[in-house]
Each structure stands twice: as structure tokens, then as C-alpha cells.
Specification:
The protein is of the alpha+beta class and about 110 residues long. A three-stranded mixed β-sheet has the order 1-2-3. Helix 1 crosses helix 2. The longest helix has 23 residues. The model has no long low-confidence stretch (mean pLDDT about 90).
Length: about 110
């Protein structure tokens, strides 16, 4: 597997920062009161597709929030496009993935307490 180029990393970091701001501006109410964090972004070498990893707290709302993100993908992409228009020729397609590493940490923590 090839490692990401510096350009991919820079673009991914910019997308992560901008999406985090867009989501934060919408507020928790837009996501059923859940706290949403953009934990990472991976971008394809051609910069056409961005895999956006989000962690959701509480995790019980994860399914509903992920569905909401899917429904809003084109709107979020449009808003992202307005922010990165000067840096990128094409705005990557967004696909959202649940980052459940927090759940995993919580689970390990519970096991260690026993």
C-alpha cells in the first residue's frame, strides 16, 4: 500500500478542519443532541473521494446521526466547496464512516475495572 502524499495529507487536514467547523456551526440540535467529532479524513490520490471518519457521543445515537449525515452529504459538500474553492479545483465526494474507537476504549476501560 502506498503512503499518502504530502498533498493528500494537507488536503485531508483542511477538509477535516472545515467539516468540523461546518458541523459545529450547525449545532448539536441538528444531530439529535449528539456530540459529533470529525476524527479523521482519508483522501484518494486523485483527491476525488474523501472518507470522513466521525465519532459520535453518546454512541446510542450513532445510527440516527450517521443516517442524518448521509442525507446531508450533498449539502455538506456544497458548503465545503465554498470554503475550499480557492485551494481545490474539484471538491471531493464525501463518504462518512463511524469511528468507533471511543467505544472500543470505553469497552477496554470497563473490562479493566472488573
Amino acid at each position: 500500500m502506498e503512503s499518502e502524499t504530502t498533498r493528500q495529507q494537507k488536503v485531508a487536514r483542511q477538509i477535516q478542519k472545515d467539516l468540523a467547523e461546518i458541523i459545529r456551526a450547525r449545532g448539536m440540535a441538528a444531530y439529535d443532541g449528539a456530540l459529533l467529532t470529525v476524527s479523521g479524513v482519508k483522501i484518494t490520490p486523485d483527491l476525488a473521494l474523501a472518507k470522513v471518519y466521525v465519532s459520535i457521543f453518546p454512541s446510542t445515537k450513532a445510527e440516527a446521526v450517521m443516517q442524518r449525515l448521509e442525507e446531508e452529504t450533498s449539502r455538506l459538500r456544497g458548503e465545503l466547496g465554498r470554503r475550499v474553492a480557492k485551494q481545490l479545483r474539484i471538491v471531493p465526494e464525501l463518504s462518512f464512516y463511524l469511528d468507533d474507537s471511543l467505544d472500543y476504549v470505553e469497552h477496554i476501560d470497563e473490562l479493566l475495572k472488573k
